[in-house]
Amino acid sequence: MRHSVSARPATGSPSPVPAGSTWPAPEMWQRATALLTEVLQRCGLPYEAAEGEAAFYGPKIDVQLADGAGREFTLSTVQIDFHQPERFDLHYIGADGAKHRPVMVHRSIIGSVERAVALLIETYGGAFPAWLAPTQLAVLPVHEDQLPYAEEFALRCAELGLRAEVAGPERGSLGARIRAGRLVPYQAVIGAEEAADEHISLRLRDGRRLGPHPADEVLARIGALVGSHSPALWEDSGLSVSAVAGGRRR
Fold first, then answer.
1. pTM for the whole structure
2. Looking at the predicted structure, is the pLDDT value of residue 196 above 60?
């Protein structure tokens, strides 16, 4: 990621100003540039000047990202504009009852949604953090007898704002369904014992496993991690998971 503050073109350069418009007064330009650089400095972000990249109404911060091939694109921009509020004679009435000139902020959070999504897919290889994953829980009933409880569990997930999908026995053996959902952050395996006790056995994408535990307890933990946008799949606090390598346990 790279940050830059776009500067006004040098004197004599081709002007990007549309017909009928003018450059802002030099003091406006300097004030806007000072504010943008101060923001970057306070955030501890290194930046560079980009000569001639500014819009005609003021300087801007560009956030540049590079894809796997090293090609850069602009993810976000933010601009401070003192010029157009003055040009259009904009004002508001403040708490003091007097007229004040507003400041216009132009902001593009994601310049190109497609490029941003492509970068996320490339970065994570489809194994998105739990909060970002399209499907957060794969619900895997071992046999058809556990399908009603699996569907009930998926509804409870939806009520908590979690994205869950039931992958029933009609999609193949349990092992095949586990492999098919290998990029899903959590897999809730439901056998006869879990269905009878309203428990689930949890498998994490990184290979760790949690034995049968109350469904509500597990969902509360997952919901907290997802809600906080945590990159972690699990945090040991009362409910511990175990690493199983090469085993054939459910």
1. 0.69
2. yes
